[in-house]
Design brief:
The chain folds into two domains: 138 residues, Leucine Dehydrogenase, chain A, domain 1 (Rossmann fold, 3-Layer(aba) Sandwich); 170 residues, Rossmann fold. Helix content is 46%, strand content 14%. The protein contains 14 helices and twelve strands. Strand 7, helix 7 and strand 8 form a beta-alpha-beta unit. Helix 6 crosses helix 7 and helix 6 packs across helix 11. It binds nicotinamide-adenine-dinucleotide.
């Protein structure tokens, strides 16, 4: 793969390829932007089929983190780390500590946290080598697993999207189809059930889906059937790219609001949803609850303050829809524009601050 070509169009600041022959660690850390602050983003531990897939994933995810933090109004940039390998087979202390040393070498430009394939316990291990770790367990003074905050944010986003589409943010009596009932999706289903929403669920993990169906009374469908399910809202909470050329024509919902990162397989899919009159709440606005919660660690973590901050996703998303309406563009384009304008303003400020410093030196 031509690495510079892959990263050029997205203007990444830095990509670090790291390895540790002793533990077998192979990792790529992508720092997309530090304009608004240190690049924060979790570490994905995944058995990528090849190195190209890992690179494509990490650059996409790190750019997404920049946009997520920018729209959420956080003083953070965007970054991401991937470790190549099956976490159930190769994750151990030497490997995680070697990874911690690689993060330490970045001097705080990248701060890690958990993501798919990594846990708060792994963060304890990484923390032995570097202080640039967020999302530590509450027992260690951190904010703990970000998933409940992400799920809370998804519900706030569902209400804001419902208000936009239906003129009411009361979800009671509605039906939501949830794809993936893992840490976030499972909690989304529990929160929806608690407010009188009917849920239809699917997961490739049969154990996870049975447990949720039993505790929340959800209807279960096969993994592929979820796209044909009649529902008011479709909530993608599994892996990325589930909204694409072949799935969008099948959807039978009015709104899409879910936690998965990079739900649209391509930029064209945003237009495909508009053509089908389906209101799409941009993923990186919807799923910012986790990072908002983690960002609350900086001033000393308070759960009450974090909850208030996460609930503001409702207002942020309302602003995205308003911007879309004002400019005659789709919500995805509006969310991107809000992020890009904030970053451009900060860049200008930084440049003028530097010029001042040089002049007065
Ligand atoms: P998870 O691994 O706990 O859950 C994902 C679930 O999706 C698993 O149960 C898995 O079996 C299921 N799944 C995978 N492929 C599927 C398919 N084709 N059909 C149906 N189910 C499938 O992960 P999570 O932490 O709940 O994250 C879910 C999504 O939300 C991911 O895309 C993640 O990047 C995103 N996200 C998570 C957080 C967080 O705080 N955990 C924050 C922001 C974004």
């Amino acid at each position: 793969m031509r690495v510079f070509e892959t990263i050029r169009s997205d203007e990444h600041e830095e990509i670090l390829f790291g390895q540790d022959p002793v533990s077998g660690l192979r990792t790529i850390v992508a720092i997309h932007s530090t304009t608004l602050g240190p690049a924060l983003g979790g570490t994905r531990f995944f058995p990528y089929a090849n190195e190209d897939d890992a690179l494509v994933d990490v650059v996409r995810l790190s750019k997404g983190m920049t946009y997520k933090a920018a729209v959420a109004g956080l003083n953070l940039g965007g970054g991401k780390g991937v470790i190549i390998g099956d976490p159930s087979q190769v994750k151990n202390e030497p490997l995680l500590r070697a990874y911690g040393r690689i993060i330490e070498s970045l001097g705080g430009r990248y701060i890690t946290a958990e993501d798919v394939g990594t846990t708060t316990d792994d963060m304890i291990m990484i923390r032995r080598e570097t202080k640039h770790v967020a999302g530590m367990p509450t027992t260690h003074g951190g904010s703990g697993d970000p998933s409940p905050a992400t799920a809370r944010g998804v519900l706030a986003a569902m209400r804001a999207t419902a208000m936009q589409a239906w003129g009411t943010d009361d979800l009671a009596g509605k039906t939501v189809a949830v794809q993936g009932v893992g840490k976030v999706g499972g909690d989304v289903v529990r929160r929806l059930s608690a407010v009188g929403v009917k849920t239809v669920v699917t997961d490739v993990n049969q154990q996870a889906v049975s447990a949720i169906a039993e505790s929340c009374g959800s209807t279960v469908v096969d993994a592929d059937e979820i796209y044909d399910t009649d529902a008011d809202i479709f909530a993608p909470c599994a892996m990325g790219a589930s909204l694409n050329e072949s799935t969008i024509p099948r959807l039978r919902c009015e709104l899409i609001v879910g936690s998965a990162n990079n739900q649209l397989a391509s930029a064209d899919d945003a237009q495909r949803l508009i053509n089908r009159n389906i209101l799409y709440a941009p993923d990186f606005v919807v799923n910012a609850g986790g990072i908002i919660n983690i960002a609350e660690e900086a001033p000393g973590y308070s759960e009450d303050r974090a909850i208030l901050a996460v609930d503001r996703i409702y207002d942020t998303l309302t602003r995205v829809f308003a911007t879309a309406k004002d400019r005659g563009i789709g919500p995805s384009e509006a969310a991107n524009a809000i992020a890009e304008e904030r970053i451009a303003m900060a860049k200008q400020q930084t440049l003028s601050d530097r010029t001042q410093e040089v002049r007065s030196a």
